Amino acid sequence: MRKSTLTLVAGLAASGLVLAGCGDDDNGGGSADGGGSGDGAGADVQTIGDVDSGSCDPAEGDAEIPDAEGTGDDETSLTIGVFTGWDENYVVAELAKVALEEQGYTVEFEELEAGPAYTGVADGDIDVIMDAWLPNTHADYVEQFGDDLEDGGCWFDEGFLTIAVNADSPAQSLADLAGEADAYGSRLVGIEPGAGLTNATQNEVIPTYGLEDWEFPTSSSPAMLAELDSAMASGDNIAVTLWHPHWAYAAYDIRDLEDPEGSLGEAERLYSLGRPGFHEEFPNAAQLIRNLYLSNDQLLEIEDLMVVQNNREDNAGAVAQWLDANPDFVANWRAGTLT
């Protein structure tokens, strides 16, 4: 879900791993031996299919990385899978690239749709992905690949799926939409057909709130954002599928509709997941990635630089600009003290 692409104005086209995962039902979090050893060895590695992915605290198990100035005992070439167009994924991938390359790693990105990226990690062709939305949005991928994806914990716990409208439109709740069909043209604008948000909207929101007669076009996130931009410019009412975090909330005067029936689920965690053997072969990098934590404000600051101010033309430059303004971030990240 959540491809957010935007090149503002013209196209409006258009986020690691430890030696154990976030808590399962038995130990309530951390590694099987207590976690946070920081030595890259000795803790049991769990697969994401074996943990309660809804109970993770960001950077749980953080610790000083074994070799803060080098690569330790790691392999030195690492491939990060990046979901095409997902802005928060570009943010964390670029941050990881900066930190790891400063330590001597070679980092490459493999940019793919979510499904092929999950397949690549499970098959061992990609080392790590850093934007798995759990427990709900990417549940189907966990069902399919969970036994082959090493759980690296989460770096964010404020991900929400939403239906958003222009702030001056009449509906306040999803329960209001059916009665305000004329105001919105009986139209709810979606994103990619295969996205988790699309699935939740089709199978939960629409039947729950009696919107079966509404048009629900699904094409792409860029197309949805282009429609949003056009409607905001012309002063027309619009309802779109959206999510938090997203820079569009700063760029436009929009708000979420209340969801009294809980059709879009609770808060999501954003996880890092490694290929089979990732922790064993990259214990130093795994602890670094595991230590990552971004607040909602920090993530939106970087997305604003990346998307709104730079039109997604220089993602690395936007991240470098943010790091220049936050000079202690990488050192605290390596020390395991971001939270």
From TrEMBL:
Record InterPro entries: ABC_Gly_betaine_transp_sub-bd
Keywords: Cell membrane, Membrane, Signal, Transport
SUPFAM superfamilies (UniProt xref): Periplasmic binding protein-like II (SSF53850)
Domain ABC-type glycine betaine transport system substrate-binding intervals: 77-324
Keyword field contains Nuclease: no
Signal peptide boundaries: 1-20
Acidic residues bias spans: 59-75
GO CC aspect terms: ATP-binding cassette (ABC) transporter complex
GO biological process: choline transport; glycine betaine transport
Protein location: Cell membrane
One Pfam match: OpuAC
Skewed-composition ranges (Gly residues): 30-41
GO MF annotations in UniProt: amine transmembrane transporter activity; carnitine transmembrane transporter activity
Region spans: Disordered: 30-75
PANTHER family, per the entry: GLYCINE BETAINE/PROLINE BETAINE TRANSPORT SYSTEM PERMEASE PROTEIN PROW, GLYCINE BETAINE_PROLINE BETAINE TRANSPORT SYSTEM PERMEASE PROTEIN PROW
Protein name: Glycine betaine/proline transport system substrate-binding protein
Native organism: Jiangella alba
